[in-house]
Amino acid sequence: MDIASWIGLFGGLGIVIFGAFLGGSLGGLFHIPSLFITGGGSYLCLYLTYPLGHVIGIFGIMGRCFKTYDFGERTLVQKLVSFSEKARREGILALEEEIQDLDDEFMRNGLRLVVDGTDGEVIRTLMENELNQMEARHNTQITLVNAWATLAPGFGMLGTVIGLIGMLSNLADKSSLGPNMATALVTTLYGSMLQNWLFVPIAGKLGYQNSMEAKAREMVIEGVLSIQAGDNPRILAQKMLTYLTPKDRKVIESDVMKD
């Protein structure tokens, strides 16, 4: 569970509610018809932009930002260096037994190509193509969330206009002008909140997760190609360490940079 996402979700909402409470307007923030117009209307318009399956699955996509994903960069370095050392001692074919137990399908497929004697350029092309397709899928999902973020404020303004039309049609009742104006403006508030409190931050977190997973796969590609090329394990280790943060690098540097 990603604690940071939960802090952002409830913290942002709490600050808005607390501010409204201090301003004496807390009761006016809750208006079910405005919520239907802003949230429901903007969501349904997504069906005009994306296929049915994408829009139905958006809530599962957004839920990913509340989960913690560990792509195990340090473990990747250690595994790849270990495979390199074994391949150097016993030959590439010695990796065949090792890769059967790998949980990382991407690494397993790459090393299997190495064991099968596939040319390095072919391996790079195949693995980079898989990486590119993964990023394309993720970017489509992120764009879907950003599309909702774009539509929500527009529907908020639409709800405000609808409320103003109702208010102006009943100008004879002066006592209702203030409450009706407040109700009309609530939809603008909902649209702004959905965009800035929810959808844009979620899309940002999904983008961060995508970049971390892509980096892990780039590490695998470089490591697999280094093994295929017969590089010294120390060279492979140096390549892999460049992907790590200084803190993580210090933790494993002594283990993977052995003489």
Q: Give the helix tally.
A: 11
- State the major sheet: none
> What is the terminal separation in angstroms?
40 Å
Q: What is the CA-atom radius of gyration, in angstroms? A: 27 Å
Secondary structure class reads: mainly alpha
Helical residues, percent: over 70%
Question: What count of structural domains?
Answer: 1
**Count of strand segments:** 0
Provide a descriptive summary of the structure in words.
The chain is mainly α. The chain has one domain (33-55, 72-259). It has eleven helices and no strands. The longest helix is centred in the last third of the chain and has 53 residues, at 177-229. The model has no long low-confidence stretch (mean pLDDT 87).
Give the topology.
Blueprint: H1 3-22, H2 32-49, H3 52-56, H4 58-63, H5 73-90, H6 95-99, H7 105-115, H8 120-168, H9 177-229, H10 233-241, H11 246-256
Helix pairs in contact: 1-9, 2-8, 2-9, 5-9, 5-10, 5-11, 7-9, 8-9, 9-10
